[in-house]
Design a protein that fits this description.
Oligomer: single chain
Distance between the termini: 14 Å
Largest sheet: 6 strands, parallel
Helix content: 25-40%
Order of helices and strands: EHHEEHEHEEEHEH
Structural class: alpha/beta
Radius of gyration: 16 Å
Strand order of the largest sheet: 3-2-1-4-5-8
Length: 189
């Protein structure tokens, strides 16, 4: 798949929220510390080119969650904070398409290409990417503008954040999305 500014791709920024700064809460280890800065660079590029932008905000229904709307962790990180009329889509499940009007907004704007960045690679990013692919969108997932945390296996084995990230990307690439880098998009948009 190819992508260019003339395609008018939408940038989908998933859950880049302050609550994810608490690495211990999410598992103790995180990969790709530059993910948010890379997402911020792409956001600036999209703004400069007046391309569609959608901010996705996870609003956990669990009162004690760092991502619950009553907690400051629910706020967007400053590097990708929405401005002006940029739409904010609030969700409380892993997919940005479930319980929201994201698909309707994309369809009404005749958007066929999506660029996905955000947190976390193996949860909300993966679920949204899978659904985007299943809905027929040409989807580009930005490997260095996504990140995740380590996970404990069923037997208690610790799987590193980088391993979780890489296997999530490998599962999505070529079937649900084309995995690309920030630099690739900066050269093509």
């Amino acid at each position: 798949m190819s992508i260019s500014k003339s395609d008018r791709p939408a940038l989908i920024l998933i859950d880049i929220q302050k609550g994810f700064d608490n690495v211990e809460y999410w598992g103790g280890q995180r990969n790709n510390p530059d993910a948010e800065n890379n997402a911020g660079e792409l956001l600036a590029l999209w703004r400069k080119n007046q391309l569609p932008i959608f901010h996705i905000q996870h609003c956990s229904s669990t009162p004690t969650s760092l991502l619950n709307e009553t907690n400051e962790g629910n706020e967007f990180k400053d590097v990708v904070k929405p401005v002006g009329e940029e739409p904010i889509i609030k969700k409380n499940v892993n997919s940005a398409f479930i319980g929201t009007d994201l698909k309707e907004r994309l369809d009404s704007a005749k958007i066929s290409k999506l660029v996905i960045v955000g947190l976390t690679t193996d949860h909300c990013v993966s679920t949204t990417t899978r659904m985007a692919g299943n809905f027929g969108f040409d989807t580009f997932l930005v490997s260095d503008a996504t990140a995740t945390f380590n996970k404990k296996g069923l037997d208690g084995q610790n799987f590193s954040a980088e391993l979780i990230h890489e296997t999530a990307l490998a599962s999505l690439n070529g079937e649900f999305a084309t995995v690309v880098t920030t630099d690739f998009l900066k050269q093509n948009i």
